[in-house]
DNA sequence: GAGACAGTTCGACAGTTATCGAACAGTGTG
DNA sequence: CACACTGTTCGATAACTGTCGAACTGTCTC
């Protein structure tokens, strides 16, 4: 499996981050990733088809929200929290807190 | 001109707010509205066709971001900051601060 | 090597969205 | 009343998006 590209956080426009977070499935993924780092894709929303999830992973990766590293046949997903906090201070925390229902 | 509907802020999902903010034109409108309340639509982005802007106003209204009140033949636009802050604490401030380039 | 497993890519489809000109509805002014 | 002005509504169109099955790539295990 070829290496997936992660954008430099400084190249990510704010609107891309907001768009990535504006989908309920992706927001759910981000919330789970915020709780537990280094989770494989299979740990998320197993009732959703893999191809659909893979699409969302890509959107999240491209928006700089998630970093995926290969580990055997899995990919471990981690929220790029520190980088995001540095570029968009308070944004992620506010979204996560607001998403707590 | 008939009265425009503004949703109760508690009925607005977080994803709707994020989606409304994820468009560059709408984000620009919100930023301007954050600086000056009670601005007529004509004060915003005059180079964009009126019908396009009206569409964006509607999205912003439906997402609970902007309140429009009729004043003569104009509509004055005001960011629903206090309500948004109560429902999504810190979100708007983080977005506005991040949008400062 | 065969097969199970994790995740991506491809192609197709339906639904949504942004854009814009033209027509329209209220409102103020002469 | 006629006209200018502000903003909405109505198509129409092109582009984008979410969803999903099928095929594929790479990895691990037996």
Q: Can you tell me the overall shape of chain A? A: globular
User: How would a crystallographer describe the biggest sheet of chain A?
Assistant: 3 strands, antiparallel
- How are the strands of the biggest sheet of chain A laid out side by side? 1-3-2
- SSE order of chain A: HHEHEEHH
DSSP strand count of chain A = 3
The interface involving the most residues is between: A-B, 22 and 21 residues
- Rounded mean pLDDT of chain A is 94
Structure annotation, total helices of chain A: 5
Percentage of β-strand residues of chain A: 5-15%
> What multimeric state do the chains show?
homodimer
Question: What report would you give on this structure?
Answer:
- The structure is a homodimer of 101-residue chains.
- Chain A is α+β, with helices and mostly antiparallel strands.
- Helices cover 48% and strands 14% of the residues of chain A.
- Chain A contains five helices and three strands.
- Chain A has helices spanning 14-21, 24-35, 50-62, 81-87, 91-98, and strands at residues 39-40, 66-71, 74-79.
- The first copy, chain A, has a three-stranded antiparallel β-sheet.
- In chain A, strand 2 (66-71) and strand 3 (74-79) form a beta hairpin.
- In chain A, helix 1 (14-21) packs antiparallel against helix 3.
- The termini of chain A are far apart.
- The structure holds a DNA duplex (30 and 30 nucleotides).
